[in-house]
Design brief:
The chain has 9 helices and 3 strands, in the order ααααααβααβαβ. By secondary structure, the protein is mainly α.
């Protein structure tokens, strides 16, 4: 053998290296944006009288339930309403409905009573704190000639420390000296037809008289009624004539 041939066989054949093909990454195609502006959904409007009546009834029911803080399932409520309007078979008998509604009313009255008691207790505590902090700084005035009312007012003034501080028993005030029995007699005389003309000045019995409804009924029977006043109060409105009265301006 030739040396060249031996050398050629002893040398391992050259290995061919293949370069992997280069891949080019392309970003995904971007969808073109819509150039138009999306239209806002038009608000729901009530067009027909039927729609307005339906909404008004629903609003009335919902408002009442909200005020009473009723815990309900709106979906079940709507189901009951649909069943009743359809006139088909109901999920409850009339007797079951009566029982449930009776219990509901009982629970509502109980909750209302508890709420009132809590509010009353809170108001009482607040009032006691206020009166204690302002002892001797206030007074209560009786606007009635009823002796029982006056006794209660005097007791309140004693409790709040008004006697000797805001009330001075040594100085008399000659105001509000009307007598309820005299006005009661007047109303009776008007009812009996004994009075033809009534002049009213500086008072408003149609508002502050204890039996205002009886006075107003009698006032309508008068042939002539004249109110001298600087404002259109309840009595003046019922009188046949109104004459302006002088005032501090």
């Amino acid at each position: 053998m030739l040396p060249g041939s031996v050398m050629a066989q002893d040398t391992p054949p050259a290995t061919k290296t293949q370069t992997p093909p280069t891949k080019t990454l392309h970003s995904p195609a971007t969808k073109p944006r819509a150039t138009g502006t999306a239209k806002a959904q038009a608000p729901f409007t009530l067009k027909t009288q039927k729609e307005k009546i339906s909404y008004a009834i629903g609003m009335n029911i919902g408002t009442g339930m909200h005020r009473q803080s009723l815990q309900i399932d709106p979906n079940i409520l709507l189901r009951g309403l649909k069943d009743a309007l359809a006139g088909g078979k109901m999920l409850m008998t009339d007797e079951e409905v009566k029982t449930v509604m009776t219990q509901l009313q009982t629970d509502m009255r109980k909750a209302q009573q508890e709420k009132m008691e809590q509010a009353g207790a809170a108001n009482k505590k607040e009032g006691e704190v206020f009166l204690a902090a302002n002892k001797g700084k206030a007074l209560v005035v009786s606007g009635s000639n009823n002796p029982h009312v006056q006794v209660i007012v005097n007791a309140i003034n004693e409790a709040i420390g008004a006697n000797g501080t805001t009330i001075n028993w040594g100085s008399l005030v000659q105001t509000r000296q009307g007598i309820d029995s005299d006005l009661a007699t007047l109303v009776s005389d008007i009812d009996a037809g004994k009075v033809g003309t009534l002049l009213v000045y500086g008072v408003n019995p149609a508002y502050d008289y204890y039996d205002a409804e009886k006075f107003k009924a009698a006032l309508k029977k008068l042939r002539t009624s004249i109110s001298f006043n600087d404002r259109l109060d309840e009595t003046t409105e019922l009188c046949k004539y109104a004459i302006p009265a002088p005032h501090f301006l």
